[in-house]
Amino acid sequence: MERLQKVIAHAGIASRRKAEELITSGAVSVNGNKVTELGVKVSKNDRVEVNGLPIYREQPVYFLFYKPKNTLSSVKDDKDRTVVTDFFNVKERIYPIGRLDYDTTGLLLLTNDGEFANLLTHPKYHIDKTYVAKVGCIPTRSDLNKLENGIVIDGKKTSKARAKLISANSQKNTAIIELTIHEGWNHQVKKMFEKIGCPVEKLKRESFGFLTLGDLKPGQHRELKAFEIEKLKNMALANEKASKRQ
Prior knowledge:
- The chain starts with a strand and ends with a helix.
- It folds into 3 domains: about 1-55, RNA-binding S4 domain (Structural Genomics Hypothetical 15.5 Kd Protein In mrcA-pckA Intergenic Region, Chain A, Roll); about 60-125 and about 210-245, 2-Layer Sandwich (Alpha-Beta Plaits); about 130-210, Alpha-Beta Plaits, CATH 3.30.70.1560.
- It has helices at about 5-10, 15-25, 115-120, 140-150, 190-195, 225-245, and strands spanning about 1-5, 30, 35, 40, 50, 55, 60-65, 95, 105-110, 130-135, 150-155, 155, 160-170, 175-180, 200-210, 210, 220-225.
- Helix 1 (about 5-10) crosses helix 2 (about 15-25).
- It contains 6 helices and 17 strands.
- The strands form 4 sheets. Strands 7, 8, 9, 10, 13, 14, 15, 16 and 17 form a 9-stranded mixed beta sheet that branches. Strands 3-2-5-6 form a 4-stranded antiparallel beta sheet. Strands 1-4 form a two-stranded antiparallel sheet.
- By secondary structure, it is of the alpha+beta class.
- Its EC number is 5.4.99.-.
């Protein structure tokens, strides 16, 4: 289910704010019934009309993208910086699922399916995301335990994670660390490493759930296969059920 104004915006009828104005002015109906209140959610099977004309609902598309460095996880930028959708030539109005920092590289998913995006970004669904970071220190086992047990950043404690020391360079006092988390807070990985005194020098997302970059090079993408989409949905729902039983 998606909010009505979001569906209208994705159909290219109007911006999200203008779509809200269309709703409150009585110009929108769902299954023949006029809707004037914001917050109404609709499914893919609902018939949405604006000023008596049915809106075009795009077929859902799903992409796996290798985000290069110095690229915004956005569809546009008022400073004319490179955004992830600059690497796509598709008719659908796709957007990134979650985000990676401007200087962070790696696996990013893009879609026009709002329900799917919510499944993969809401923390209750516990989809693992694995990052590899080059940090400006050599953490101790105690430091890694802190990452794994949860660290308070911005007044909130992170969930349990997995941390692994891949390599260390004692001469340069740097290390390569693999960290797996399932949240997606703003700058979370960098802030977690800062908390143990290890500033991040380079950061790459290696995997999202069972998905990896494979043979993709920075700036390249591929469509997700049908079984991958279904597997991600099932994984998210299974994780939600498991968390409720705990």
